[in-house]
DNA sequence: ACTTTATACATTGTTATACAATGTATAAAG
DNA sequence: CTTTATACATTGTATAACAATGTATAAAGT
């Protein structure tokens, strides 16, 4: 019961948080989908479902926060690399400001 | 456009975060609905819509994280006071752990 | 007297998002 | 030759924030 609520809560916390994490990861490098899942897992211990990541990246692309390009591999399936756009960089700055303020507020009450 | 994305993002961040904030506020005192909106506004600068708060409190009650009691006023409309249950206290502890870990991870990448 | 503003709780409909399930395809390892 | 890992994608479901709307009391403004 209790665990069930926490599980659902964690899923809700990810709404918004995931996009924020992914944009932050893309600030330093270009990455392709699977790599983004690995990086997120490594950096935050959050396991992103594939059914979450790909629609999310498409949304970010549609919003013009990231751009993508296909890169053929000598072996295996082509990879779609994502990169922050100028708009993505400036939007991320606003998001970081909001997050820091939120974090600070929550730190005071927990 | 950009602002539009940020506005929607902030709304998404609130999913999960709001429940967490409200439970934390209720850790120290009993509060009624309107007071919870004020406290949240004061402590986090987040303006909770009424259409968000009341269904949210009902969910928390249904999940047995809070209990409520009506208190008649000498003047004005009766108030419904909310209080953390034992289950609410222990669940909140788990949530705080998750949040601290998340916060720490995000701090490293922003 | 009448209107506005603030308090107090609540429901309905809309929108956005995480995620399980499922699908397609390549290639290395057992 | 079957399993596992890589790689991208879609569909359907559940959940939650919020605008809009509704009901009701009472103080303050004009």
From TrEMBL, chains A, B:
Which InterPro entries does the entry mention?
Metal_resp_DNA-bind_regulator (IPR052509), Tscrpt_reg_PadR_N (IPR005149), WH-like_DNA-bd_sf (IPR036388), WH_DNA-bd_sf (IPR036390)
What Gene3D superfamilies would the database entry show? Winged helix-like DNA-binding domain superfamily/Winged helix DNA-binding domain
The chain positions of domain Transcription regulator PadR N-terminal read 22-92
SUPFAM superfamilies associated with the record: Winged helix' DNA-binding domain
User: Taxonomically, which superkingdom?
Assistant: Bacteria
Designated name of the protein: Transcriptional regulator, PadR family
The record lists the organism as Flavobacterium micromati
Q: What is the lineage of its organism?
A: Bacteria, Pseudomonadati, Bacteroidota, Flavobacteriia, Flavobacteriales
